[in-house]
Amino acid sequence: MASACQNDRYQDLKKLRFCNISLTANAWIKCAPLEQAKGAIIRLEGGIALSQIGRDREALDAFEKALRDAQAKSGLWEGELHQRMIQIEDYKTLALGVSVVEATK
Q: What is the average pLDDT value for the chain, to the nearest integer?
């Protein structure tokens, strides 16, 4: 499900469903910082899907959790999130993601 969640072929509710299933199946990731950091991309993708369906407040929450999860372990995790956000062609979603990053500085 994680690969479907990250696939740009899926949009809106379908993408959100794949992301939610993946997060539920991997609920244990909160226990280990490395796994938490690896799962950050799934949270980010869920936030993208939420933004696509107009649930901006929930999207912001997902983006905040993704960033926090990525920062749980040192490495390239946070950079992965930034790289993914750069690829987004939806400027509203991109603006939401940037606002989260700016708020944490």
A: 86
Is the Cα torsion angle 77, 64, 41, 99 positive or negative in sign?
negative
The predicted model gives 49-58 an average pLDDT of 95
End-to-end distance of the chain based on CA atoms, in angstroms? 32
What residues contact 67, with CB distance under 8 A and at least 6 apart?
Answer: 40, 78, 81, 100, 101, 104
Q: Is the pLDDT of residue 101 over 90?
A: no
For residue 26, CA distances in Å to 2, 5, 32 come to 10, 13, 11
Decide if 55 contacts 44 (C-beta within 8 A): no
Q: Which is more confident, 73 or 32?
A: 73
Name the amino acid, one letter, at 104: T
pTM of the model: 0.84
CA 56 to the chain's CA centroid: 13
DSSP state of 88: -
